Amino acid sequence: MLHSLVPALLSGGLVGFSLGLIGGGGSILATPLLLYVVGVSQPHIAIGTSALAVSVNAFANLIGHAKSGNVRWRCAIVFAAVGTLGALAGSTLGKLVDGQRLLFLFGLLMIVVGALMLRPRREAASSERPVDLRTCLITAAIAFVTGMASGFFGIGGGFLIVPALILATGMPMINAIGSSLLAVGSFGLATALNYAASGLIDWRVAFEFIAGGIGGGIVGMLLANRLSSGKNTLNRIFAALIFAVAIYVLYRSAAVFSH
Questions:
Q1: What is the DSSP secondary structure assignment for residue 124, as one 8-state letter?
Q2: CA spacing 20 to 30 A to 50: which of 95, 115, 128, 182?
Q3: Which of 68, 71, 54 is nearest to 19 (CA)?
């Protein structure tokens, strides 16, 4: 019982830190951390547990960002509402796929995400676009696709939501980070409820993971408020971490297929 406490707290802290700092990224690490560091044995249980932990940590970080004035509520609500429908559909499909095959696809997705994170992100030169019907429709369309991917792989999707919000609305990076957390939390909650209905959540590990994540999230949020530029270096470091974990996930899942 106690042997998983420290790994769960530390792993949760890393996930919470990343969510607070860049609005995502840490969520894509949650499932591998639960499987290979904490010791959860079944992939589907790891996915369900990570979805719950990421959801609670995202909502906790959202409170801090909202107090700092970093949340654009209209866009955040549209993205969260439409994307949650996509997450429900995606998580239903994900439960039907073999756990090891899902992990293999997850590893491939991590490679793609790592490559995207290496691309330097520029702050929008123009001012924010008005939140009119066109902007809301674009945001909703991107939200549904992002939600599908989030639910299918059991990830928060923040690494997709942040650039998607910037693309759809022209909002600054810090506002996209804060606004993305409402969708990350909503996507994760939809996925977690779907997996919980099938008994695929380890509640004890989830609470340990969440406890560590709240502490890490506070530190990440404080850093995010202080950093207005220079995130390309952080993106490169995190991309390298994602590549390393992706290779390990692909290796482990490929080894199962070979037997």
A1: P
A2: 115
A3: 54
CA nearest to 58, candidates 86, 20, 106, 84: 20
Closest C-alpha to 45, from 57, 34, 33: 34
The radius of gyration of the chain from alpha carbons, rounded to an integer in Å, stands at 17
Both tokens assigned to 131: 């939140």
* Contact status, residue 65 vs residue 178, Cβ threshold 8 Å: yes
Q: How many helices (H) and strands (E) does the chain have?
A: 10, 0
Statement: residue 125 has pLDDT above 50: no
- pLDDT of residue 178 exceeding 70, the answer is yes
Query: What pTM value is reported for the model?
Result: 0.77
Per-residue confidence (pLDDT) for residue 231, from 0 to 100: 56
SS3 state of residue 172: coil
Task: Report how far residue 114's alpha carbon sits from residue 36's, in angstroms, rounded to the nearest whole number.
Answer: 20
Other beta carbons within 10 Å of 232: 14
- The CA–CA distances, whole Å, from 3 to 40, 47, 150, 195, 243 equal 12, 21, 30, 25, 28
Place of tokens 């992939």: 43
- DSSP-based three-state secondary structure for 227: coil
Which residue, chain included where needed, has tokens 């209905």? 197
Q: 63 vs 38, 52, 78, CA distance in Å?
A: 28, 17, 18
Of the candidates 89, 73, 83, 74, the residue with the CA atom closest to the CA atom of residue 140: 83
- Chain position carrying tokens 């297929």: 257
**pLDDT level of residue 212 (50, 70, 90 thresholds):** very high
